[in-house]
Amino acid sequence: MTTAAAEVTARSIRRIALSHRLSRWDVRFSPYLYISPFFLLFGLVGLFPLLYTAWVSVHDWNLIGGQGDFVGLENFTTVLGQPYFWTSLRNTFSIFLLSSIPQVIAAIAIAAVLDFNLRGKTFWRMGVLLPYVVAPVAVALIFNDLFGDRFGLINSGIMSLGLEPIRWHVDVIPSHIAIATMVNFRWTGYNALIFLAAMQAVPRDYYEAAIIDGANRLRTFWSITVPLLRPIIIFVILTSTIGGLQIFDEARMFDNVGQGGANRQWQTLTLYIYELGWGQRNFGRASAVAWLLFLIIIVIAIINFMITRRIAGSADRKLRTRAKGIS
Amino acid sequence: MKRFPRSTIAATVAGAATFALVLSGCSAGAGSEPSKDGKVKLTVATFNEFGYDDLFAEYEAANPNVKITQKKAATSNEARDNLTTRLAAGSGLSDVEAIEVDWLPELLTYSDQFADLSSADVKDRWLKWKTEAATDADGRLIAYGTDIGPEAVCYRSDLFAAAGLPTDRAEVAKLLGTSWDSYYAAGEKFVAAGTNVPWFDSAGATWQGVVNQIPNAYEKADGTIIATENPQVKEAYTSVLAASSTLSAHLGQWSDDWTASFQNNGFATQLCPGWMLGVISGNAEGVTGWDIADTFPGGGGNWGGSYLTVPNQSKHQDEAKKLAAWLTAPEQQLKAFAAKGTFPSQIDALASDELLGATNEFFNNAPTGEILANRAAAVDVTPFKGVNYFPINDAMQQALTRVEDGTMTADESWAQWVTDVKALG
User: Fold this and answer.
1) Which member of B91, B180, B224, B291 lies 3.0 to 4.6 Å from B297 by CB, making a disulfide possible if both were Cys?
2) What is the pTM of this model?
3) Can you spell out the DSSP letters for A174-211?
4) How far apart are CA B369 and CA B354, in angstroms?
5) Nearest CA among A294, A30, A51, A35 for reference residue B11
6) Which residues of B touch A251 (CB under 8 A)?
7) CA-CA distance, B142 to B116, in Å (whole number)?
8) pLDDT for residue B26
9) B407/A38 CB distance under 8 A
């Protein structure tokens, strides 16, 4: 009797314990299970290639022949000793700065205009997004007609004014401006819409209060809109840093050779990787440059993050102290 | 400029799609299998225009046990990426893969990946240099020749007339002469007449003609790089740049400006292989006066041309070999020439009346078949092209461009080219 009763209690306790434990596991582990597909896929298509690239970069590696001898860091020291690595690093930064800075400024300005009560709102908003829909290669083809050295539209205009034509495919800075123009054409509208969405989330009473205090449009823009856009500005600057340092399509399509010019005037780091990997078939060196690019992007992203946080943060503090003063 | 997916959902969807593609790709890429009705299925991968579309139907009719599928890539670059990627992967290639002559030096270093196609039947089918270029060090023939690109000189007879030069193609051939010096001298005469039109398109295009006549320009037969010390290369570099300073339009070949210049009297002459005729008549549509002279400076020259290979990955190598041998036979190549203008590389085809009688309306009804056949016979040098030929030549093209666009002097640009070549090692 006692043993039977004990058995029953033990069983029910065990059953309770089991289901209890299961539900506790459910609460504790299910969320991880639900998000695991992303991480599994990220591991497959993100992390694995990343680590494999590191593995390739310490070997002699031919595109067709495959793995060769282990060479340690020799690929890294070799590419760091090549003048074209440094040229392409310079070009990458120059094109990145020429595209990202005007892009973010123009995007905020366009967003601010779109934030007004315009007639045909949706039309204007879709209008700025239109360039984003066009494939980068198509953009490059169209812009190449503008930036032709001899028979291009812009130079035809310049020459008809009696001025010297700009040598888009010969001089360094003009070629960077031309490529940055294509990048900006494609991405400004996209970023503007992101800023617009953030602006519309700013509570309208802030503006009303500021206008009652006598602030004009410009003042409210600088003192309310910009500080409150902080997280979005950081987001856009981070993504355009990542994208800007990886510019490839526009630079590759800028002439028919696709190597970034006879003197590498506009060769970016990604183009350099392509030249090493698919031109010279040297995957070891290409992977080394890919890893260097990865490290550069991380460093720049951290620097960007700190700078934007400080700038936006100081403006934010000003707003808060003023808000305190008002109340 | 690329962006990362904005949300987990987007990333997951994209990732799942990639995953599905990878899985299906693994099962689908196996190539050809005998189908249920006992037919052998052969796939043939080509690019641009080989002129084979009708020939496949003809072959199927004659060989009822064979079913052919053609995989046609739009550009040769696309076909090359496909070939190298699948060679590296070890599976997924077609039973017959078309290749371009330029890929051969590299593919020959992996010649064990291709079936040996040499046989007594086809031994003397092609021009000697065409076969030699596809034979590896052990004497294995890895590719059957399809077409070639013998070079002549195309010229604008209307601009010649304006400059007071002869316009008849026999007289022009005499004027241009058979050496580079006589070609440049004719150019000086043309430019001196003051028509304000340059003589040729670019130093780079002229360089292609010159360098293809040097047997070992950049590498010795064992692959040792001699490019920077070879006096012939330095001499060619100096002479081409000297000519280009007064005669060149400085238009990089294939650039947008180059293409546009055909409508703007960009230049008076151009070195042209057979397949270039189509390029010129396309770019210069509506322009009258183009003609072609039966001569080429410095002897004969060949630029481009293709081959058919049978990769070892093929499961039906014997059937594939048979098909490749049939397609590259003189009779079939003449049909391809009639269809798409690919100039045959087979000795018998070169002597056929059908080829010799062919004319080209755009080029003032010139007997292009006969002229190009003469040009093919004049090719007497097979330049050695090792694995480093193309990177070195590419760097040389850029060195010439740097001088033409004024970025550097000839000496500075040469020095940078030497550095570029050293960096390849």
Assistant:
1) B180
2) 0.78
3) HHHHHHHHHHHHHHHHHHHHHHHHHHHTS-HHHHHHHH
4) 8
5) A35
6) none
7) 5
8) 38
9) no
In a domain, B332, yes or no: yes
Average pLDDT over residues A55-62: 92
- What CA–CA distance (Å, rounded) separates B394 from A262? 10
| Whether B101 and B201 share a structural domain | no
Which residues in chain B have Cβ-Cβ distances shorter than 8 Å to A239?
A: 3-4
Q: Is residue B263 one of the residues assigned to a domain?
A: yes
pLDDT at B31: 41
Model confidence band, residue B167 (pLDDT cutoffs 50, 70, 90): very high
Determine whether the interchain pair B12/A37 forms a contact, defined as Cβ–Cβ distance below 8 Å. Answer: yes
Element spanning B121, H or E: none
> How far apart, in Å, are the Cα atoms of A119 and each of A114, A122, A199, A225, B419?
10, 9, 18, 22, 61
What are B356-415's pLDDT values in tens digits? 998 888 999 999 999 999 998 898 888 888 888 888 998 999 999 999 988 899 999 999
The parent domain of residue B93 ranges over 31-148+304-356
Q: Do A263 and B408 touch (CB under 8 A)?
A: yes
Which among A63, A82, A255 has the least Cβ separation from residue B423? A82
Domains in chain B: how many in total?
2
Q: Per-residue pLDDT tens for A295-307? A: 998 998 888 888 8
Question: Are residues B173 and B137 both part of a single domain?
Answer: no
Parallel, antiparallel, or unpaired for β B290-293 and B143-156? Answer: antiparallel
B291 & B348 share domain? no
Comparing CB atoms, the residue among A151, A247, A255 nearest residue B260 is A151
Inspect the interface and report whether the beta carbons of A262 and B2 lie closer than 8 Å. Answer: no
Q: Which amino acid is at B183?
A: Y
Q: Tell me if B219 is assigned to some domain.
A: yes
B358 neighbors B371 (Cβ within 8 angstroms): no
Q: Indicate which CATH number applies to the domain containing B118.
A: 3.40.190.10
- Minimum mean pLDDT range among A2-6, B89-93, B211-215, B339-343: A2-6
Q: Do residues B285 and B346 share a domain?
A: no
Strand partners, B73: B47
Fold type of domain A78-326: MetI-like fold (1.10.3720)
Residues of A in contact with B424 (CB under 8 A): 280
B133 and B117 in a common domain: yes
Determine the distance in angstroms separating the CA of A325 from the nearest CA of chain B, rounded to an integer: 39
Q: Could you tell me which chain A residue has the CA closest to the CA of B7?
A: A38
- How many residues would you count in chain B? 425
A281 and B402 in contact by Cβ < 8 A? no
The amino acid occupying position B122 is: V
Report the residue of chain B nearest A244, measured CA to CA.
Answer: B1
Residue B330's pLDDT is what?
93
Distance from the A201 Cα atom to the nearest Cα atom in chain B, whole angstroms: 19
Check: CB of residue A184 under 8 Å from CB of residue A106.
Answer: yes
The crossing angle, in degrees rounded to 10, of helices A136-146 and A153-160 is 20
Q: Is A116 in a helix, a strand, or coil?
A: coil
Is the same domain home to B130 and B192?
A: no
Residue B226 has pLDDT above 90, yes or no: yes
Domain positions in chain A? 2-57, 78-326
Whether B202 contacts B404, CB under 8 Å? yes
Answer yes or no: is B386 within a domain. Answer: yes
Q: What is the tens place of the pLDDT at every residue in A152-191?
A: 899 999 999 999 999 999 999 999 999 999 999 999 999 9
B77 and B204 belong to one structural domain: no
Of A41, A242, A257, the CB nearest to B19: A41
- Are B56 and B135 members of one domain? yes
